[in-house]
Amino acid sequence: MRIFVRISILLAAANTAVVAQCSDAGVCTIGSKHTSLSHQVGVSYVFGASGKTDDLTFHSVVMEGTVQLFEDARVVVSLPWTRVSGPLGNTSGIGDVTVLLNQRLWQDHASLLSVQIGGKLATGEDNAGSLPQSYQAGLGTNDLLLGVAYEFDGWTAAVGYQLSRARSENALTRLKRGDDLLLRLSYGGMLGDVNASAQMLAIKRLQESSVLNSAIPGGDAFVTVPESDQFQVNLLGQASLPLFENSSLQVLAAVPLLNRDVNVDGLKRTLTLSAGLWFTL
Asked: What is the pLDDT of residues 131-167, one digit of tens each?
């Protein structure tokens, strides 16, 4: 059976979150299939909702390009434009750029080992509307992304790490997030002409986040956010449908299996839906 499952960072929601409750487009990109396709471009619309606790809704349009450098290496670049709406107001703007190199190390007839290295660049606004970090299109930090993935007969297992040690310049929170550890398990294959996959993503934030201490106005004292290092598990389904020559429609739906309560970074999702067009050049 010919296997082709493309886990795309184009499927990013607001604040560069990719799937329901996923940390962000950076860490969730790690472990994508190392396809043999040539250059590609795509555009997607993504809807996300944080749930009743915050009552935030997210609408994103995401542009992505994939460049095949060599037979064993490809680079993926994505840039979202996001609108966030909630009880405190609305913001919109360009989000953070994510760049990832996927390098194949070894392959035989049934299995493949690859590594990923890249970064998330703080190109997005983090003070729009004078609103908290959860309303911002960007996270305000430059993060390092590392990962390794193993593929075998339609299965993919991956582990990833996002190093995030800086602090956002958001005037209200000055948020500093912890690092993220990701584990991904997916299975996919062809169902007639449709390319479908199911995934489970587990993400553990390794340190609690910290924000400005509101009890000391005008100062630079910070306080940790209790339970902001929660464990989260997400279930995701994806399908790719061929349209015309060298083009396809990709759809995605994601929900959390293990919900997190703290949403100081604005990355929590109780639902993510996405649809996008892809073109092979």
From this structure: 999 999 999 999 999 999 999 999 999 999 999 989 9
- Expressed in percent and rounded to 5, the helix, strand and coil fractions of the chain are 5, 55, 40
Number of Cα atoms under 13 Å in the Cβ half of residue 272? 33
DSSP single-letter state for residue 208: -
Residue type at position 136: Q
Residues 61-79: tens digit of each pLDDT: 999 999 998 888 999 999 9
CB 182 within 8 A of CB 159: yes
Q: What's the whole-model pTM score?
A: 0.86
Four-way CATH pick for 14-280: 3.30.870.10, 2.40.160.40, 3.10.310.30, 3.30.360.10? 2.40.160.40
In the chain, what are the domain boundaries?
Answer: 14-280
- One-letter amino acid for residue 225 of the chain: V
CB-based contact 25:272 (threshold 8 Å)? no
Q: Please give the Cα distance from 62 to 130 (Å, whole number).
A: 24
Q: Tell me the β-bridge partners of 77.
A: 65, 99
